[in-house]
Backbone:
């Protein structure tokens, strides 16, 4: 019989929890920005027409979904849940970088997203080692 090599009872390391809480707080802020006031981060942006409102609002809702997944993972101290959530976020961050570069986005935004992606990768590796032990 094959032994399960994953340990679902391992808790989330403190450093990864702190990083997750930073993502949660930042995510709440960006949910507000994208949904209600995109001009805070995107000069000249408005949500006066339907397509802009739909684009910004749907992005805000997706951010909120990610925040909820992070929050549930951290509150219940489930390393596997957080691992899956961060893998999903990393995929989104990589996609955002590709879109940002291909559409001529700002270098600062690309660097910021890249930094978050690197930190998410660090947390994923750390969680993987803990889950695998």
Residues:
């Amino acid at each position: 019989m094959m032994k399960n090599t994953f340990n679902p009872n391992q808790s989330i390391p403190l450093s990864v929890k702190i990083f997750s809480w930073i993502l949660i707080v930042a995510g709440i802020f960006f949910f507000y920005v994208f949904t209600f006031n995109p001009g805070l981060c995107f000069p000249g942006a408005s949500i006066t027409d339907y397509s802009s409102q739909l684009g910004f609002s749907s992005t805000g809702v997706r951010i909120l979904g990610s925040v909820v997944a992070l929050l549930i993972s951290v509150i219940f101290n489930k390393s596997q849940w957080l691992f899956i959530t961060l893998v999903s976020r990393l995929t989104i961050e990589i996609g955002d970088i590709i879109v940002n570069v291909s559409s001529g986005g700002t270098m600062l935004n690309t660097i910021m997203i890249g930094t978050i992606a690197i930190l998410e990768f660090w947390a994923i590796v750390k969680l993987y080692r803990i889950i695998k032990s």
About this structure: The chain has a mean pLDDT of 90. Residues 14-132 form one domain. The two ends are 19 Å apart (CA to CA).
